[in-house]
Design brief:
9 helices; Arginase, Chain A; alpha/beta; binds manganese (II) ion; 17% strand; 10 strands
Amino acid sequence: MLTQNTAFTTNEKRYMDNPFVGIATFLKAPFLDDIDALDANIAVLGMPYDMGTAVRSGARYAPRAVREASTWNCYAYNGWYSPVDDTVYMDENWKVVDLGDVDVIHTEYDQSFLNLEAAVRKVLDRGAIPFVIGGDHAITAPILKAFDRYEDLCIIHLDAHLDYRKETAGVLYGQGNPMRRASEMSHVGQMVQIGMRGIGSSLPEDWADAKERGNIILDMGKIRKNGMDWVLAQIPKAKNYYVTLDIDVLDQSLVPGCGSPQPYGMYYEEIVAIMRKVCELGDVVGFDAVEVCPPYDLNQQTALYQANLMLDMMSFIWKSKKDRGLL
Ligand SMILES: [Mn+2]
């Protein structure tokens, strides 16, 4: 039986298992090295890949950094009380496991992406929800390929940038292309792109293409003008959602350690509100959290935000299933 990654003790009555003790899996959840034996609700996978980066490299170190940061919240693994929501999230029947990392071969993006896609397929085959820690945002395209068992998958894209570049000097799978690649997949339906602002890789024609496709694009001007209640009302109801969280959706003052920081960004609690709303509307069947860049981080600040938002997302998924009697 898998148990949480715990410390050695000679005195069970005085057992502590502090966050700084032990091997840093996500939330100090059990590590499972046999993906074919996966039996859990949430499967965390690391994709230590930053070959898609055109700005600041270093996201390859994020899976370790985010896991390390997540140990701060390791007690949440067995349930945690939110005084803000007056709710206890997650319980002992909610299984989170950490599958470790996908193998990345330097310079070989195609094989690295095949490894990632295959791992995500196996997680889905086993009935778990993949939570992938990037990596730069290029990784979302191969992840989404693995979701072709779904139809009309609604994508919630939280990001400072549209990431809709058709190609850049022939590059199709960089960090500026994943949402364009997603739009080309027949199983991808509506796309909701939230937090756009500032300088990005996408050209005016890419924006025009995204709008013509019918993507719901909520840029920061609209968000600040209309407020969060309006933002939440723009999210369409769907059966299945995939959520991709580029940490640069948060304001650059909050996330110094990300690949392409931008001012005029969103606050943590606004992202939480969006994730909560999506979980109320339908099933989140997959999630990735990308673009933490530890070499530029300060005091783990960016990694802590990413780890916290991952915990929030798995908690809201738990609540959504619990409220519907599915657990
Ligand atoms: Mn992005």
